[in-house]
Amino acid sequence: MPSLAWIAAGLVLGSFPFSYWLGQIFLHKDIRAFGDHAPGATNVARAGSKTLYVIAVLLDAFKGTVPVWLAQQVSAVNGWELAAVAVAPVLAHAFSPFLKFRGGMGVATTYGVWLGLLGWLGPIVIGVCTGLMFVIQKNWVWASIGGTIGLLIFLFVVHYPLYFAGACLAHATILTAKRYSYFKSWPELQPWLSRRGKAQ
Length: 200
Known about the structure:
Elements: H1 2-15, H2 18-27, H3 41-46, H4 50-75, H5 79-94, H6 107-118, H7 121-136, H8 140-157, H9 162-178, H10 191-199
Helix pairs in contact: 1-4, 1-5, 2-4, 4-5, 4-6, 5-6, 5-9, 6-7, 7-8, 8-9
């Protein structure tokens, strides 16, 4: 069945830790020694190269877009089978066997998947919702989760098929599982909200 092949392709491509490899090859550093100690693109920048950071983000997004887009264009995969293809690269990125199943959050890969599913509308909705979360609070993990939850609400409001919402919910669950410790306390509000609360 074609969908199984595309799910496998998503798992394989998603498992490639491009950010980690770029750090090893070009910076001769383990990017997990920086920042939040995750093998994600942000730590490529922290390790010393903004150019490689951009490349890492594009590669991580690319591995989400390609299997999803090709599954639709080449094999006309849709429905819940397409949802499974959409989840595969994010899941594999988060639990990459190349890194002993300790991968990154999969934020860029999630953006890439939704680029493949909805065109530029997907990343734009996630980006806007993420930005709104940053207006309210400071933590980027909370903002990332807010972006996917915002997309989930959008999918329901615009009446996209239920399998789109299923894929989005799976992405939010993976992101949450990778950074569950951040959700043990409420996010820190931005100063303008804190000052307003004290004034009242």
